[in-house]
Specification:
Its EC number is 2.1.1.-. It holds the Pfam family Methyltransf_28. The protein has a domain of 149 residues. The chain is 30% helix and 20% strand. A hairpin with a 5-residue loop joins strand 6 and strand 7. The structure holds S-adenosylmethionine.
Length: 378
């Protein structure tokens, strides 16, 4: 790993996906589950909900002879493995499960699962494309406002030292002005105000799941030329998501991630690191995950719909309510199982945690367009 100055996008690309020493691609590495918990790791209920969604897609598509489930950013294939276990035999028999993942195929994975490093060809997939906590790991550049309030690209070295580079321009400046108005590259007056002390006080706690955002309510009133405001340029994620959606001939594309909205972007951005279950400073040397919240509203295509994970999972039958106490008397072991399921469901749907994540649903073709209403209605 060199220690030369470059933008965060290039530095993150090397740090996470370098062929020999990338955080995710290092041969023999533990994979995401070795460093943090995603919804997939929290409980098999999550894979069960994706299986339910897949069955709805299958029905909407008229039960095709071959039904695809493409998992983008598949980690070690845990979600596909869980969905295969949860599906009715008749659907599993027609399923073509496919992992798209930059890391190598893990040993011992179910032989039915295809493993590939790139997305399938455009228009080649009929079924469900699902991406859990993928886009937050698509590398992005970071900008920071200088003393005059001008947004400049942040340059970084592999040891994490930063300095400001050139003013941001072109398509990146346009993206910032459209999607992140507090960045100094657009109409800064339209954005929220800055109370630096309050905002710094919201630094994220170490935790096993990623995605706790700074508390927007703690941020105070601003000035458009305030130095030190930061933003992440989400353009590479918009493009990555659009490319993923284009792989569908017919069906539904879903991505789930920690997200923020145009009117509510954090004043100092969200770039951070994770290692061994703890939040750490983002140092692009391959020793830690590097991640930032996703501007899901910017990724959304014209037919897309956004829900919270809580709403989506509830519509798919994941419910955190406790089982009735009477069950403890009539069937104690079923009661204990139901209680533990309710605990996991509560974690997956907690509005202050995983339940607050955004789901972006994008139907391709007519068949799954009505599915959005079906998901809403449960
Ligand atoms: C945070 S992990 C999520 C793993 C899994 N989806 C889960 O929820 O547990 C992100 C994964 O996305 C993979 N990834 C990132 N960019 C990718 C790309 N362009 N194509 C395929 N995989 C990618 C990384 O290698 C990593 O395994």
């Amino acid at each position: 790993m060199t220690n030369e100055w470059c933008g965060w996008r290039e530095a993150t690309e090397r740090a996470l996906y370098g062929p020999d020493d990338g955080f995710y691609t290092r041969p023999g590495g533990p994979g995401p589950a070795g460093h943090f918990r995603t919804s997939v790791h929290v409980s098999p209920l999550y894979a069960g909900a994706v299986a339910t969604l897949l069955c709805r897609v299958d029905t909407a598509l008229g039960r095709p002879d071959e039904l695809a489930l493409v998992d983008v950013g598949a980690g070690r294939g845990e979600l596909l493995t869980g969905v295969l276990a949860a599906l009715p035999d008749e659907v599993a028999a027609r399923l073509r499960p496919c992992a798209v993942e930059r890391a190598a195929r893990p040993p011992g994975l179910d032989a039915r699962i295809e493993w590939r490093g790139e997305l399938p060809a455009p228009g080649s997939v009929t079924g469900l494309l699902f991406a859990n906590e993928w886009l937050d790991n698509v590398p992005v550049d970071v900008v920071e406002t200088d003393a005059d309030g001008v947004a400049r690209r942040v340059l970084v070295r592999a040891d994490g030292t930063e300095r400001l580079g050139e003013p941001v321009d072109g398509a990146d400046a346009e993206w910032l002005s459209r999607w992140w108005a507090t960045s100094g590259a657009g109409d800064a007056a339209a954005g929220p105000a800055l109370d630096a002390d309050a905002a710094k006080g919201t630094a994220q706690d170490a935790g096993a799941t990623r995605g706790q955002a700074p508390d927007a309510d703690a941020l105070g009133a601003p000035a458009p030329t305030t130095p030190g405001l930061r933003a992440e340029i989400g353009r590479p994620r918009d493009e990555a998501w659009a490319e993923a959606v284009r792989t569908l001939r017919a069906g539904l594309a879903v991505t789930a991630d920690y997200a923020h909205e145009r009117g509510d972007r954090p004043l100092f951005g969200t770039l951070t690191g994770f290692r061994d279950g703890r939040e750490v400073a983002p140092v692009p040397d391959g020793s830690c995950d590097i991640t930032a919240h996703v501007a899901l509203d910017a990724c959304a295509g014209p037919s897309a719909r956004r829900l919270t994970q809580r709403a989506a999972l509830r519509a798919l039958g994941v419910d955190g309510r406790r089982p009735p106490l009477a069950l403890a008397v009539t069937d104690p072991s079923r009661y204990v199982r139901a209680l533990s399921g309710a605990g996991a469901a509560a974690e997956l749907t907690d509005p202050a945690g995983l339940g607050g994540f955004g789901w972006l649903l994008e139907p391709v073709g007519e068949a799954c367009a009505g599915l959005l209403r079906a998901v809403d209605a449960g």
